[in-house]
Amino acid sequence: MIRCEIRGENIEVTDAIRTHIEDKVSKLERYFNDALNTHAHVNIKTYNNKKGKVEITIPMKDLTLRAEESHDDLYAAVDLIVDKLERQIRKHKTKINRKFREKGPEIELFRAIENERAEEEEQNDDGIEIVRTKEFTLKPMDSEEAVLQMNMLGHDFFVFNDRYTEGTSIVYRRRDGKYAVIETN
User: Fold this and answer.
1) CATH architecture of 1-112
2) pLDDT tens-digit readout, 94-148
3) CB of 90 closer than 8 Å to CB of 113
4) Could you tell me the pTM of the whole model?
5) Residue of 91, 110, 97 whose CA lies nearest to 38
6) Which residue intervals define the domain Sigma 54 modulation/S30EA ribosomal protein C-terminal in the entry (predicted)?
């Protein structure tokens, strides 16, 4: 079972909200081979304009799933965000399972689900204003793993420690849709 850790900012997390989130997030369990030790970190924020924002992060050993959604209706935002996470999993599960099988023949993170179609997501980021600063630990991985992680997070770039060069590298999505790597000296 995926355990939900729910935190509210400027909102009280009622039993109804908690139940709705837990019910929706539990639907993701069908995609995992081992959902027993999985936690979902859910952050709910409300703003003065009554608009709410929901962020769900599911950190795992070698992978992080994350999505966020803003909406006037908190319940609708939860529904939309779980749909986003399902699309991420369906879109990338074959590549991720292949990568994990290279590490160990018995390792498969996601279950095979029949009758699935991958869906493309479009992203538009026009602003250059820095609104948030993040700090994280760089993990050793190869560039293919970094691209998978970047796509799972829904970002256009990803910083990582290159397993082979032992230097810090950056993968990013080019305008033509292909990927590139920037290696540091």
Assistant:
1) 2-Layer Sandwich (3.30)
2) 777 777 666 665 555 555 554 444 333 333 334 467 788 888 888 899 999 999 9
3) yes
4) 0.59
5) 110
6) 129-180
Q: Give the position of tokens 């986003």.
A: 84
| DSSP string over 71-131 | ESSHHHHHHHHHHHHHHHHHHHHHHHHHHHHHH-TT--SB---SS----------------
Q: Are 110 and 93 in contact (CB under 8 A)?
A: yes
55-59, 116-120, 166-170, range with the lowest pLDDT: 116-120
CA distances from 65 to 11, 54, 85, 127, 134 (A): 24, 14, 7, 24, 16
Query: What is the fold, at CATH topology level, of the domain defined by 131-185?
Result: SHC Adaptor Protein (3.30.505)
